[in-house]
Amino acid sequence: MHGSGAAARSATGRDPAAARPRPAHRRSLAGERRTPPPGRRRRPAPGRLLLLALAALPLAAPSVAGADGAPLDRPGPAISATALLHCSPGIEDARRSPVLLVPGTGATPALNYSWSWEPLLTQRGVPWCDLTAPRNGEDDVQTTGELLVDAIRRVHEKSGRRVSILGHSQGGMVARWALRFFPDTRAKVDDVIALAPPNHGSTRLSTALCAKQGCSPAMFQQTSDSQFIAALNAGAETFAGVSYTNVYSAHDDVVTPDDGPAPSSALRTGAGMVTNLPTQLLCPKDESDHLELGVTSPVSYAAAYDALDHPGPADPARIDRAVCDLTSQPGIDIAKLQTMIDPLLDALGMSRATVAAANGAVAAGSAEMRVRQEPPIRCYATAAGCPGQAMTRGDREDDGMVAAGRACRSTRRASVPLPRTWRRATVRVTRGAATVRRRRGRLHAELTLGGSRAVVRVVARGTTAGGDVRRWSTRLRICASR
């Protein structure tokens, strides 16, 4: 979420963040401390220039809406879309957990990461892939979440290792959509490192305001009272086996509130291992804003690499407080940052001139993307589920297997793809016979089914390339006996 939100307002209508006195030495994105000459007005840093457009939005009282949450372990539907990925060398059979980079709203991977995280990861010998979201992340976040599911599965298969997801703003939050509604991804993900994520939406925009003026679908969904946010957080926010590192700042102008007892970025429920890290906990004088957290913050850098280099989430006790003396991530291409600001503003339907003149215009997404109604919640994210979804069994690594209650086999022979990460397998069926064959580099169960108008259970046991033993099952319905 690059383009909606700032701090809550006081009873007088003034923004407390704007009223706070600014220290004489403001950390700039250019990695130095600058004190303007007496009488000269300070020019906004590039990150703050982008966020000046968000300073005058009305406060929206959060009122969680939406149906009851989906069961936590119900398998998600088959994903037909293919994610657009760009990967570094070394992703195949990687020596360590690869990083999957997910950009924020209105940004491409090039804008968000090509000049910062990607070269830094390469320098440290960490393989990575980046995901391009539809319409630069301004479209339905549910679609981005489904593409991320495909990306997780593919990067996991290519690398042979669990994936670490690093995302800024929406990019950090959308990882949780994949983990929440596609449970098979949980065993494939090691870390979720989220920089300024709107995990509970932002009060800077509201569904009522978006309905009145129009917002991009993604902005609509990232309001604190959206159906999307309610569905995302229903039941549990984290899951066992996955480590979550959330880095956020009390000075975030976009995701609000991100201070006080209930910061939007913080995660509080579920069985995952979680570190909620406000930058001011490490560096009390840190003033990182929303954009800076994702692209230049030395605290974000230190926390991310602490999480990547150790089991579990980042541990503030391991992070050297010398990071507080830095003004940007080590080795970052600051010169290239200056070329990124205009494209980021353009993606939100703004420019430097209009931002400076408006000093508080509503940034609700690019004009051509604005709608007046939130996208409906998809059936798999509801308590009722999609037709036949509750009947599915096993890991959805089956890539669209026909399951009982959804469809049926009109023949006694069937070929069923087994999980892609398996190297050896044995299969049995309750009615009929099964053999295992490798086709196009993937194991398949070749079935000869018995009986008629019956449900046949298929049970498989397999071994991954890493030696892990897994069990998997599904059901097939025979609807004719020919």
From TrEMBL:
Gene3D superfamilies, per database record: alpha/beta hydrolase
InterPro entries hit by this protein: AB_hydrolase_fold, Lipase_EstA/Esterase_EstB, Stereospecific_Lipase
Give the compositionally biased regions (Low complexity). 1-21
UniProt xrefs under Pfam families: Lipase_2
Region Disordered: list its residue ranges: 1-44
Alphabetized UniProt keyword annotations? Hydrolase
Name of the protein? Alpha/beta fold hydrolase
GO MF annotation list: hydrolase activity
